[in-house]
């Protein structure tokens, strides 16, 4: 079974021949290589691009190991694209497997110590050269223990077009699930959207695959890349993050939680360092807190969300399945997938009690900044009582502006609007519609 990722195909197609390196990033095993070398390639072939217009190198395959030498890779691509009148698409999978080559023509003693890295030729050098050749359109994927995809983006900056690939969305998952919407949603909350997990029909095999993927791919990558001899702190931090998705926290709180899990202390500095490792690997994403009225960010305290709920659940052995937290995590991922800049909102409200002014902070789950306006989103399982409705909409009413306000509820209810102009709709409706935010 093939799931056509049409939104990504459109996104990649928009940036073809733009003179930049196209960099496909995302968590490992999310389907980056298949997207590029199968789905996108087939799309181009259907448009009439000839088969001999593709130069494909997979550096993790035995046949292409020799091209891990950047000079050999460069010469191979030039030899395959000699016809200057013809356009070629260059696909390089797992680009980070290229090692660096020392330039023997330069006297190293003449080069200052701080500049010694310039003695080496790397894949960054050869890609920079290939990028400016008018008959080549270059695409790369890359993420493993040696160099995760964030490094590639950093090194190319404005010379690269990044396409972020997420695990399957619910909109991609539902048509192939073979289930009614509600059942499909429960399945998705449990097992997530990693491609091989989605395509596996046996629940026991899904669970085993996701657990093995977390342990033997992602954690192994991080430990190898950063040469971590002791993994107890990392494991405790991962468990703490998985248990508290969508909760406000900071390195100090996480250090205390990890310490209680390990029965020994660890430092805030170590936890912050490991947090960076986990986010670089796309396992978790941090959302900053934004003061809606004060128009400023709060330092240090963030919310962390899992990139895939199936991986998160597998890490916890499919315990702690609090639907409210899972739904909030899922909504956050969907907003990112659709290209929004998303913050956690804070509204400060002052009231007078017994003659004293009391200032309190109220949370809005998500604030979307679209440039010209904001959109406020609250995630709630239900608003089936007056008290619950008042609780879930209080912070929205206190923003002091007239931007769009949305409450996403459990289920598949149609969109409706109350007397305050607040929009309500079911999460399944939100996930399946393309125009759910009205912009």
Compact overview of the structure:
The protein has helices at residues 6-14, 32-46, 70-80, 123-131, 149-156, 170-177, 181-191, 195-199, 203-225, 232-243, 251-262, 268-280, 309-315, 323-337, 386-397, 427-432; strands at 21-26, 54-58, 88-93, 101-102, 120-121, 136-141, 160-165, 248-249, 284-291, 296-306, 341-353, 356-369, 374-380, 404-409, 416-417, 423-426. It has 439 residues and is an alpha/beta fold. The chain is globular.
Overview of the molecule:
There is one protein chain. The chain has 439 residues and is an alpha/beta fold. It is 40% helix and 23% strand. The protein has 16 helices and 16 strands. The chain has helices at 6-14, 32-46, 70-80, 123-131, 149-156, 170-177, 181-191, 195-199, 203-225, 232-243, 251-262, 268-280, 309-315, 323-337, 386-397, 427-432; strands spanning 21-26, 54-58, 88-93, 101-102, 120-121, 136-141, 160-165, 248-249, 284-291, 296-306, 341-353, 356-369, 374-380, 404-409, 416-417, 423-426. A nine-stranded mixed beta sheet has the order 8-10-9-11-12-13-14-16-15. It has a five-stranded parallel beta sheet with strand order 2-3-6-1-7, with helices on both faces. The radius of gyration is 24 Å and the shape is globular. The model has no long low-confidence stretch (mean pLDDT 90).
